[in-house]
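Dear support,

I submitted the protein below through the web form. The confirmation email said the job was done, but the results page showed an empty box. After a refresh the structure appeared. I'm attaching both so you can tell me whether what I see now is the final result or a partial one.
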Amino acid sequence: MKIHGINSCDTCRKARRWLGEQGIEATWVDLRADGVVRADLERWLDAVGAEALVNRRSTTWRELPENERPAMEPEAVLPVLEAHPTLIKRPVFERAGEVRVGFTPAVRDWLTA
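What the results page shows now:
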């Protein structure tokens, strides 16, 4: 399993701590330090859609000028997420070809299934 996020994100830290407590091993990928691979973004957009993947509550979103905020079509979102990986809702979990975003009870249930 991989978990993609940002080291300074409280939710990511909470998720990583919880994974450790559950004995679930995961490879950490820091979106800010490591960047994001276009193929990953395409896969995530296909799996969960732009509405779920773009964090419109983020500081990065609020700081983007209105004319740079993408429409929620994958073609429009993809280059913006590549340029601003902190716009990605976090954490992003990948396991066995499946993708989940966030750290909700439903995601925790999926992680332990």
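Response: this is the final, complete result; the empty box was a page-load delay. The helical segments are 10-22, 31-34, 38-48, 50-53, 59-63, 74-83, 105-112.
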